[in-house]
Design brief:
The structure holds 2 protein chains of 2 kinds. By secondary structure, chain A is of the alpha/beta class. Chain A has 17 helices and 12 strands. Chain B is globular, with a radius of gyration of 15 Å. The termini of chain B are far apart. The mean pLDDT of chain B is 95. Chains A and B meet through helix 1, helix 3, strand 1 and helix 11 of A and helix 1 and helix 2 of B.
Chain lengths: 429, 157
């Protein structure tokens, strides 16, 4: 009898966790321990050699984190995951697993500001060069690829431009060039979109956002599809004995989870961005209601976007779920359940009106986060993308009069009321 | 029959404890050596089959399956797909109950022979990974085991 293919709602609640074998606890215990005893000297050697599976040290693995990793792998339809201390660490670990000095990446230019800085500044210092392209035309990725390019990178919905890339076209370009397509799926979550279904090879997340759902914890995760052919000649460090982990050949030894084993043993182990097991516990609590929350998030978001589009104080609204969006058809294709709950809009009156708006909201929270159960507002040009100059901000899709809104789960009429009164205040400024 | 679902794989791994590993390497960093050591550590009797060695992992090694002087439950194959048909014939000859082809090994003729002989046949799966997936271990390193259950597992990791 074939194994049942469970639905995503069931996976949100069950994937990765059986009742605790030691106690029968139904909820995943928080294994707040730094290390784990070895049964014998030989057992210790086998664990360090990766000849047997088991726990060594929480910097590398932890049973609570492992439940979160496995649940995320299952939700994304991937093979394996690695939990890390933040979304930024997820990108770092995902990319350093396959990149070294002299390598290049081609990325969509519409990115979270911190990601742009990580690639353009920190990676450059390590000798890794990023080329940023306009992702509206997938051919721009192909044109920027050189023999040193080791991956393509994009966000499933760009932050904060809310642009949608043509996944299948970009994935095809990556496949044609024998390199993986890495997608940051933070905005969409696997409930709204599974990039692996459209040809992506590696998915990264800031778990801090919708996965957590309640703004309580910082964390990240990377997931591999298990389908990328690492033996195609372009990734010798996946094939050759690892100098960083006593001669293991990761792809030969672990096959379709060789990439995440390499990420765990070569990068997480030595760079050390470990996730706290307590944060994993909170992410697992969040994931149990991901499907219910995301349905309400997108329902509220569409109502808010429609309201803003008709509001006289609003110059423009960018939300891929609106029919007026240039990304509407791509969003319909890749996000059939809804195009997440993040949108940006421009306020008439420029920077000054934006400041007045931000300072006039009643319960909408002015802070630099998104994907919270509460509705959040921020002015990216002066906060999240502040380290970019104005030209670079515009390149990244950040206009001076742009407000980014993460629509939460409050009563929809209350959200609309607070927006309306703050827009009225901005207008009179 | 072909064994490919969780329930049947669990049955196969629980019911049999003597495994002849064809092509088991003596090099500790080879995947076959990893698998052999893992199965030994988890209570299975591992009989190495490889003409190149006298012993592997401290166990007496035999050149061919036919040379093994005791009953074999499982023939686990770490060889290229092109050479597995005669191994399937030998597995049938010695009365093994399970014919297991490791990750990346497919051979329709060998599989057909073993199925027709009434054996349980596993294709393109690593015995170590499957054991860790179904009896605990693989869950510690973030791999999706695909096991969904509300039953308390009877293993203590």
């Amino acid at each position: 009898m074939a194994d049942r293919e469970y639905g995503i709602e069931t996976l949100c609640l069950h994937a990765g966790q059986l009742p605790d074998p030691a106690t029968g606890a139904r909820v995943p215990p928080i294994y707040q321990t730094a290390a784990y005893v070895f049964d014998s000297a030989d057992h210790a050697a086998s664990l360090f050699n990766l000849q047997t599976f088991g726990n060594i040290y929480t910097r590398i693995m932890n049973p609570t984190n492992a439940v979160f990793e496995q649940r995320m792998a299952a939700l994304e339809g991937g093979r394996a995951g690695v939990a890390v201390s933040s979304g930024m660490a997820a990108q770092l670990v995902a990319l350093l697993t396959i990149l070294q000095a002299g390598d290049e990446i081609v990325s969509a230019k519409t990115l979270y500001g911190g990601t742009h800085t990580q690639f353009a500044f920190n990676f450059r210092k390590l000798g890794i060069n990023a080329t940023f392209v306009d992702s509206d035309n997938p051919d721009n990725f192909a044109a920027a690829i050189t023999p040193n390019t080791k991956c393509l990178y994009a966000e499933s919905i760009g932050n904060p431009a809310n642009n949608v890339i043509d996944f299948e076209a970009v994935a095809q370009i990556a496949e044609d060039n024998g390199i993986p397509f890495v997608v940051d799926n933070t905005f969409a979550t696997p409930y709204l979109c599974r990039p692996f279904d459209f040809g992506a090879d590696i998915v990264v997340h800031s778990a801090t956002k919708f996965i957590c759902g309640h703004g309580t914890s910082i964390g990240g995760v990377l997931v591999e599809s298990g389908k990328f052919p690492w033996d195609n000649g372009k990734f010798p460090t996946m094939m050759e004995p690892s100098e960083g982990y006593h001669g293991i050949r990761f792809y030969e030894t672990f096959g379709d989870f060789g990439y995440t084993m390499k990420a765990r043993c070569e990068i997480l182990r030595t760079f050390g961005p470990t996730l706290s097991p307590f944060n994993s516990f909170l992410f697992l609590q969040g994931l149990e209601t991901l499907h219910v929350r995301m349905d309400r998030h997108v329902e509220n978001a569409l109502a808010v976007a429609t309201f803003l589009e008709e509001h006289p104080a609003v110059e423009w609204v960018s939300y891929p779920g609106l029919e007026s969006s240039r990304y509407f058809s791509l969003a319909q294709k890749y996000f059939p359940r809804g195009a997440s709950a993040i949108m940006s809009f421009g306020i008439r009156g420029g920077l000054e009106a934006c400041v007045k708006f931000i300072e006039s909201v009643n319960f909408l929270s002015h802070l630099a986060n998104l994907g919270d159960a509460k509705t959040l507002v921020v002015h990216p040009a002066s906060t999240t993308h502040r380290q970019l100059d104005e030209a670079a901000q515009v390149e990244a899709g950040v206009m001076p009069n742009m407000i980014r809104l993460s629509v939460g789960l409050e009563t929809i009429d209350d959200i609309l009321w607070d927006l309306d009164q703050a827009l009225a205040a901005a207008r009179s400024s | 029959m072909i064994v490919d679902d969780i329930r049947s794989l669990r049955r196969v791994l629980k019911a049999h404890c003597t495994i002849a590993m064809v092509g088991l390497s003596d090099n500790w960093y080879r995947p076959s050596n990893f698998a052999g050591k893992y199965m030994l550590d988890h209570g299975y009797k591992v009989i190495p089959v490889n003409p190149n060695y006298a012993t592997v992992l401290g166990e007496k090694c035999y050149p061919r399956l036919e040379d093994i002087p005791e009953p074999v439950d499982v023939v686990d194959v770490f060889q290229r797909a092109e050479v597995v048909v005669p191994i399937a014939r030998s597995a049938i000859e010695i009365g093994a109950k399970v014919f297991w082809l490791q990750l990346g090994i497919y051979n329709d003729e060998a599989v057909g022979l073993a199925v027709d002989a009434g054996m349980d046949v596993v294709v393109d799966r690593c015995m170590k990974i499957e054991h860790a997936r179904l009896f605990g271990g693989l869950n510690f390193i973030g791999v999706d085991t695909r096991v969904i259950s509300s039953a308390r597992p009877n293993w203590i990791a």
